[in-house]
Write a structure and sequence with these properties.
It comes from Drosophila rubida. There is one protein chain. By secondary structure, this protein is an alpha+beta fold. Helices cover 27% and strands 19% of the residues. It is built from 5 helices and 7 strands. A 4-stranded antiparallel sheet has the order 3-6-1-7. Helix 1 packs antiparallel against helix 2. It starts with 54 loop residues before the first strand and ends in a 5-residue tail after the last helix. The relative contact order is 0.20.
């Protein structure tokens, strides 16, 4: 059997309740915001590592998390996990980006609509929920996969060993590649005049993270 020498028991093993909307001072009108799709495009550069080096749900694409998704994750994981041996932690903040919406049947114009709800934008590779404790991957995989299937974007259940193996395979492929005509080379050298129809996102990420 595996040993878990570095695991410390926490006071509150379950996920905490997230606020539905951010709390503003009483004299401040809640600010509205643009779409800012750049918050969802591209790879996650900061929160892409596991803190406890065990198991987690990782976003496989960009998207937005609403408050209902937080409750779904909190309730499902809280019911299914063993609180005596496991604990769960959030790796995403509470909903903070305002999304506006106009009432149905309104005419065009009249200014920006009222705030309808708040979301949290997520990039590809972002760790969403982390599970750790005295437990094997097979114990967590079932209910974590159930949660990942209900998220509004593609997500996968991973362990630290799986992440290490993926990064190692990517390094080996990049190192042993013998074909010089990679997509990055094609785009940077404008082969066949591809700059005429490529999007700015392709110039930045070279065909990835669309």
């Amino acid at each position: 059997p595996n040993n878990f020498p570095d695991i410390e028991k926490v006071e509150r093993p379950k996920l905490r309740i997230m606020e539905r909307m951010p709390q503003h001072p009483p004299n401040l009108r809640p600010p509205k915001m643009q779409k800012r799709l750049r918050y969802m495009r591209g790879p996650e550069l900061v929160h892409n590592q596991l803190l406890h080096k065990q198991y987690a749900i990782v976003a496989a694409g960009g998207g937005r998390l609403r408050w209902g998704h937080y409750e779904m994750m909190r309730l499902t994981i809280g019911r299914k996990m063993n609180v005596n041996t496991m604990f769960a932690t959030w790796r995403v903040p509470a909903p903070w980006q305002p999304i506006t919406k106009k009432g149905q049947g309104q005419r065009m114009g009249g200014g920006k609509g009222a705030i309808d709800h708040y979301v949290t934008p997520v990039k590809e590779g972002r760790v969403i929920v982390e599970i750790a404790g005295i437990c094997e991957f097979i114990e967590c995989k079932g209910f974590l996969q159930q949660v990942a299937n209900q998220l509004p974007f593609k997500a996968k259940v991973v362990s630290q060993q799986m992440l290490d193996k993926e990064r190692e395979e990517d390094e080996i492929l990049a190192r042993t590649n013998q074909n010089p005509f990679t997509l990055k080379y094609v785009i940077q050298n404008n082969l066949n005049g591809c700059h005429r129809w490529l999007s700015p996102v392709d110039h930045k990420w070279f065909g990835k993270h669309l």
